[in-house]
Amino acid sequence: MPSASFSATRSYTRRTRRKGTNRLPIPSRTSNSGGIVEAGVTCEPLVAASGSYATPGGASTSTSFQHVPPYDLRGRKSPLHLHDASTAGFNATAPIHPTATRPTSPTASATASVLQSAAIPPLSQPARKRLRRNTSCTITSSDNSNSAAHYLQCELPDEVMLTIFSYLYEQDLCRIAQVCKRFQAIANDNNLWKRLYQSVFEYDTPLFHTENCRFDFIPFEESEHHNPWKESFRQLKKRCLHVRPHYNGTAKDPVRRMPHFDTIQAALDHADEHLNGGAKIFLHPGTYRGEFLVIDSDVTLIGAASGVVADAVILERETESTVMFVEGAKNAYMGHVTLKFTPNVTSTVPHHKHFCLEVGENCSPTIDHCIIRSSSVVGAAVCVSGAGANPRIHHCDVSDCENVGIYVTDHAQGTFEDNEICRNALAGVWVKNHANPVMRRNHIHHGRDVGIFTFDNGLGFFEANDIHNNRIAGFEVKAGANPSVVQCEIHHGQTGGIYVHENGLGQFIDNRIHSNNFAGVWITSNSNPTIRRNDIYNGHQGGVYIFGEGRGLIEHNNIYGNALAGIQIRTNSDPIVRHNKIHHGQHGGIYVHEKGAGLVEENEVYANTLAGVWITTGSTPVLRRNRIHSGKQVGVYFYDNGHGKLEDNDIFNHLYSGVQIRTGSNPIIKGNKIWGGQNGGVLVYNGGLGVLEQNEIFDNAMAGVWIKTDSNPTLKRNKIYDGRDGGICIFNGGKGNLEENEIFRNAQAGVLISTQSHPTLRRNRIFDGLAAGVEITNNATATLDSNQIFNNRFGGLCLASGVQPIVRCNKIYSNQDAVEKAVCNGQCLYKISSYTSFPMHDFYRCQTCNTTDRNAICVNCIKTCHAGHDVEFIRHDRFFCDCGAGTLNNQCQLQGEPTQDTDTLYDSAAPIESHTLMVN
């Protein structure tokens, strides 16, 4: 047996017939606590067909009549005058369903009775196809009621039936739908149900109550139901009450028996007294002022209006809290309303603990699609407080409040999802005192303070929130707070992105932190957060800024495109910086200054505008196993007493040196590979110190190690090779202790010592050089002790005029002595050096050719090209032959075609000073 659209037990009761009358049977009605009165009938749909059907007494009756096949009414074009009536459902003389109570129309009641009586005879056979209208129709019965039933079921046009049905209430339509398939199609017309639905609930879109504490508007075209209006009606009608302002007391719809009230409190009292909780209270358009609502049961309060529902239903209060949920409201629901708390600012009544929405201990209401506003300059718009407080606040708008937006405290929890929290005077969200909310997909922006503030041991899980354009930081953590912030976007903060201070903690994972006016992340004052797998980029200052004894674990982040350093560590801060990519910064990569420390390991630092790593002013970080490369200046730059350790790093392909050490800096540089520098491998100058031990320094465009201007580093057990210039060059008063190094295959001298320098070389192996092994020139000196110098092209130890080093126990052997061989063979020395090398030998000048001290001529060119000229000996030193190079007026007779001279640059480009110190 097909069931009615509203299920209920069906039974017939016949009224006692009066004498002389023959009344039709009338179905009984049952009340369901103010819900829809459902049909009390048990009947089969009557199928009009040629054949027989069973009477209640069991007799078979033969029928033969015409009918039209069932079809969708909405697809059939109706006559204009009937179509208007069918679609409108009422005319000027017969208005449909008032929004409050509606007297039952006598015509509608009589029609319903006739239609119901036509449904009495149940069928024992399945439905059959209807006959066409032009077929003769006879009913083998003398009962006039059968003729009426036949006319109603078969002959009356659909449009007329639709017009008649438009006068019926929903329970009558459900009964009519059981008569036959034709009535079922007409009674389930979407327009009929839409008008019925909107007369009760007023919504423009069907609202579905799919599960406990969940209501969803689903557009008609997206619904899976054939008749969404009817299905929504079925879901909402049970245990529902209605509140309409100025309704003049409690009343009931005489047909639907839905109680109506003019105050929310009256509806709540009725629900507690008669429905034992679980009631749905629909709040119709209006402003509800002055009611002090304390919800302590599983009641549903939901706005009911057309358009944007919450805009039309407003709950407002000036003292205490507008709505308070307390213990007992485990599964309460409030949705689609506006809550306002508007205290009188001149009032003497204190309101610092009063809120627009308050959720207390041991309750877990659902707050959905609400607009929440508070003009109080103290307190908060929403307060969730106390153990067991665990609301679900979804799709709400908490904006334009004169204080905090959402305040969660005192061990409270709660789930806050898809809310709009913006333009509040103080923080968008406060979390403190061990509160632990879950906040997902919220939009927190344009606050006049911080976006989210966790403090005083606050916790919380924050996921996929969009936090931007707040006046202070997007997210602030202090005083033992320990939130988890995952997959959020924190950007365009007017100060910074994330600010962790005063012993703050927290885990910040997989976030996008960008375009903030100051640092993307600030860590200070003994705070120790974890910053992991974030994209931190395009900051107007730095990426991560750690200062004031800050700590923290900074790992697996992608930090790029920031205006200042990608990571800045200062003032006794000591973070762990690990596995990050720090690149394409407009300043440097990592900047450690003012006694900063930290462990910086296994990062990739590259393509930054200034130094990859800056270490200065007493700082002592440890850099281990990093790849620092492709910078537009220096790789690692120690200056102004920068210290620390540089261990097992790969430092390569910088426009300047791989490492620079200056002005009192004294780092330990051990086990690194330093290569591909366009201005040398390591430059130590201006009083720089340092210990360079067990490094590989190779393939640099200029010297592997430069030591200049009173610098005094220690080089032990390094391999310095394949340089496109010298191995180690010591100039301008440079010193240094060079011990047990292997210096080989360099294009210029293995060790060049010049201009007042005085290093000590002990137990080094200097070999396979493409020029000399060791050259000392220009008033320099050195101590050479127990070194091995062999297989160098120009010679082993080459000393310029006047040089008197301390030499003891050295082994100088198997050198190729190409200079001496060229002299003996009568060759121009330019033949073996071109303009890239500087062989050491006797050089002359020619007064006849008017050469100067800067124009050197080798001994063979003096003998051949300048024979008979007035010549003089200059000194034994490093030069290439200008005669062979073609720079003199006379063509060299020994060299052949002249070659254009190009001087080799021996000095490093001056490092560019950081602007960070000036900014900070």
Automatic annotation (TrEMBL):
Species, as recorded: Sipha flava
Keywords of the record: Chromosome, Metal-binding, Nucleus, Repeat, Ubl conjugation pathway, Zinc, Zinc-finger
Major location category of this protein: nucleus
GO cellular component: chromosome; nucleus
UniProt pathway: Protein modification; protein ubiquitination
Annotated SUPFAM superfamilies: F-box domain (SSF81383), Pectin lyase-like (SSF51126)
GO annotation terms (biological process): regulation of apoptotic process; ubiquitin-dependent protein catabolic process
Domain UBR-type span(s) in chain numbering: 826-897
Gene3D superfamilies per record: 1.20.1280.50, Single-stranded right-handed beta-helix, Pectin lyase-like
Region (Disordered) location: 1-36
One MF term in the entry's GO annotations: zinc ion binding
Residue ranges constituting the F-box domain according to the UniProt record: 150-196
Biased composition (Basic residues): 12-21
Protein name: F-box only protein 11
Start-end of Low complexity biased regions: 1-11
Protein's cellular compartments: Chromosome; Nucleus
Subunit description: Component of the SCF(FBXO11) complex consisting of CUL1, RBX1, SKP1 and FBXO11. Interacts with CIITA.
UniProt zinc finger (UBR-type) residues: 826-897
Gene expressing this chain: Fbxo11
Keyword Metal-binding annotated: yes
